[in-house]
Amino acid sequence: MSTENISEARRWRLLAAFLIAALTILRIIYLGYFCSFDLAPDEAHYWDWARNLDWSYYSKGPGVAWLIHASLSLFGSLSISLTGSELLAVRLPSVICGTLLLVALYKLTTRIYGNEKLAFLLIALASTLPVISAGSLLMTIDSPFVCAWSWALFFGYKAIFENSRISWLLLGLLVGAGILAKYTMALWFFSVGCFFLFTPTFRYQLGRRGIWIAGLISLLCCLPIFYWNWKNDWVTFKHVAVQAGVPMAQKNTGIRWLGPLEFLGGQLALMIGYWFVAWFAAMIVNRPGKQTDPKKLFLWWMSVPTVALFAGVTFKAAGQINWPVAAYISGMILTVGWLYEQWTSADLRFAKISRFGTYVAASIGLLLTAVVLDSRPYRAAVSPLVKAPTAADPFPIRKFDPTCRLRGWKYLAGEIDQIREELLKSDGAEPTIAGFSWMTPGLVGFFCKNHPSVFTIGPVFGDRHSQYDLWHPNPLADAQVFMGKTFVVVGTGSPDLTKAFDQVTPPRQVIYREDGQPISGWTIWVCRGYRGFDSVILDKSKTTY
């Protein structure tokens, strides 16, 4: 593509800066004053990690916990004074990571295409994707991971194509930081290794010091993870292995022949259909052997191998829809670059089709993002389609609104706080709070008054093990510490708690409603006289990772 003149390039650069700054400010304002949903289960789980700092954790590295802890230390008091809770401080790192992601996209696109207008269009279109918007608002591991991946792409490009020695060092630090957030970051080196191996003019890079120094630096960054796992029976590696389909558990012994089709459907949903189809077409057009520009081949190899790898994993494990999300960073640059060429091509018919598809996809993305930000108008619109609640389906609206899982936890915490106060008056001591799922302790602990420590007894009833089983004391591994205590147990279903307690009161049902519709529900038991469970919960042979 032709290089723009200086004044036009400056104009697009200023527009990009304005867009990124405006999005950042609007996201902070939204989270502080207009956000209607509570913490997601993952966010609350990582918040609990952040108040129990360690070198690593059961299922992830320490990166997300360190970020949340730093944000709470710097902005926790400000968040409480402005909004009444620490929620803004918990999510602020995701806003920063989202901003840095867009900056990296812009800089890398201008480096490769020399076109500031294209770079602006790219970040504008990327901002319409719900997955990008969600990653810039919810503080999960994907926010710092995708941010680290995008900047690793930028400095990797500088190291490879501009012979920048310091960029190799920065690349190693970024990949290491990304691994501390999400282990998928290690695939960065796998992808760039494929680029070197299958691009003859760059194969010599495999024998040079740069990439190996970067790899060594990233490995050194992982020492906290290795040290913690060495002290904890390598539990993270076992957990990740089971997730990836390694047959350590009975559920992973067969082949899932329809796995790739499920993966394809998930990716189509994640990328609003059009963007995945456009990505696939761009990958076909720019495939090795047909594309000769090494810069575009770099983008290709940093995208396709990761997507293909996760598609292959689905033969053994169900996986998660967001697993290959980082691969679409370089893929989107190549895709929008290819679409831009179609928009300006001599084939007017195809240009119109591709433009129309882009407009429609961007509009759908903005609409979906608006629904996620405030689903109440959407729920009102679909209410005629929602069946009346029944015993078998007490919350039918959840089939239409996925944000329901982020609602009602503050209300539940208020009900638990009321029970805590009643028990404090009657028994003269604070009760112990526990849940049946590894997702419950963080959510209840965050929203309850004074952030009490909350435990899980879920493994007794079939829930997987988690970080809560490694913290001591806990009611399962250290039952003697909790003997005779009163518990407030939160969950769903009708588990048998009488074997572990002297007295179990009739359950109290808690239903959270919005606009008259039941959104979420829980059951609360007050259990006195803890005796402990008979099951050998921490038997390694019975552990569910």
TrEMBL record:
Q: Which Pfam families match?
A: PMT_2 (PF13231)
Annotated Gene Ontology cellular components are: plasma membrane
Q: Where are the transmembrane segments?
A: 12-33, 88-106, 118-138, 167-198, 210-230, 264-285, 297-315, 321-341, 353-373
The record gives the membrane topology as: Multi-pass membrane protein
Query: What biological process terms from GO does the record include?
Result: lipopolysaccharide biosynthetic process
UniProt entry tagged with the keyword Cell membrane: yes
Major site of localization recorded for this protein: membrane
**Any GO MF annotation of the entry:** pentosyltransferase activity
Q: Where in the cell is it found?
A: Cell membrane
The organism sits in which domain of life?
Bacteria
- UniProt keyword annotation of Lipid metabolism present: no
Task: Look up the coiled coil feature and give its residue ranges.
Answer: none
Keywords on record: Cell membrane, Glycosyltransferase, Membrane, Transferase, Transmembrane, Transmembrane helix
Q: Where would I find the Glycosyltransferase RgtA/B/C/D-like domain in this sequence?
A: 60-228
Q: What is this protein called?
A: Glycosyltransferase family 39 protein
Source organism per UniProt: Telmatocola sphagniphila
Task: Tell me the lineage of the source organism.
Answer: Bacteria, Pseudomonadati, Planctomycetota, Planctomycetia, Gemmatales
